[in-house]
Design brief:
With 205 residues, the protein is an alpha+beta fold. 22% of the residues lie in helices and 33% in strands. The chain has four helices and ten strands. It has a ten-stranded antiparallel sheet, with helices on one face. Helix 2 runs antiparallel to helix 3. The N and C termini lie far apart (71 Å).
């Protein structure tokens, strides 16, 4: 094999293994609705968790309907996922939990690999979750207050239609101090996680 062919082969290997790395088994912890807990290695595949107690043990598929939440480790950080009822969907969706509290914030990140297949989470975290790092990544945010039965799509705003500022001020209109901070631009679109945290910590007393 000459030098050029060797380089081409190496590049192909890096592409293949790089695209598959998103769906590898990762350290995980599963919290079941019956109160039991499983620790091991797993990955989310559609509406199931493919789980194994150790890297060498045989895997099993667990229906997400039996799970309260699942933690998957990526780059020393645990990412939490749960099955959430969403107003805009006919069936519950598996969403990553960004904020858990009286008002919870969720995200669904869709990543399409080079072959056109949707990959399982977790994905490479974005420095700023609103700004896409490539055409193959797409974030959809959902928000839910404890009094709500379903989460709702959290519209990040479009300058041509309705702004994030207007949507947020309307959603959190029961908290005047937060509305004033959004209006004064103390909280901007990139601060959407901090907005939910502020609401939970300061507006429900």
């Amino acid at each position: 094999m000459n030098k050029i062919n060797s380089l081409l082969f190496l590049s192909l290997v890096l592409i293949v293994f790089g695209s598959n790395s998103y769906s590898q088994n990762r350290p995980s912890k599963i919290y079941f609705k019956d109160g039991s807990i499983l620790e091991g290695y797993g990955k989310i595949i559609k509406d199931k968790v493919k789980f194994r107690v150790s890297k060498k043990s045989e895997s099993q598929e667990i229906e997400f309907t039996k799970i309260d939440s699942v933690l998957l480790k990526y780059k020393k950080k645990m990412h939490a996922y749960a099955l959430i009822k969403v107003a805009e969907s006919d069936k519950p969706m598996i969403l990553e939990i960004l904020v858990h509290g009286p008002t919870s914030l969720y995200v669904k990140t869709t990543r399409i690999d080079d072959n056109g297949f949707e990959q399982s989470p977790p994905f490479i975290p974005k420095k700023n979750r609103i700004l896409a790092i490539g055409p193959d990544l797409n974030d959809e945010f959902y928000i839910k207050k404890n009094v709500d039965l379903e989460a709702s799509y959290y519209w990040m705003g479009n300058p041509l239609t309705e702004s994030f500022k207007k949507v947020s001020m309307d959603y959190f209109k029961d908290c005047p101090s937060l509305v004033n901070k959004i209006k004064a631009k103390e909280f901007r679109q990139s601060d959407f996680i901090e907005i939910v945290l502020y609401y939970n910590n300061n507006c429900l007393l």
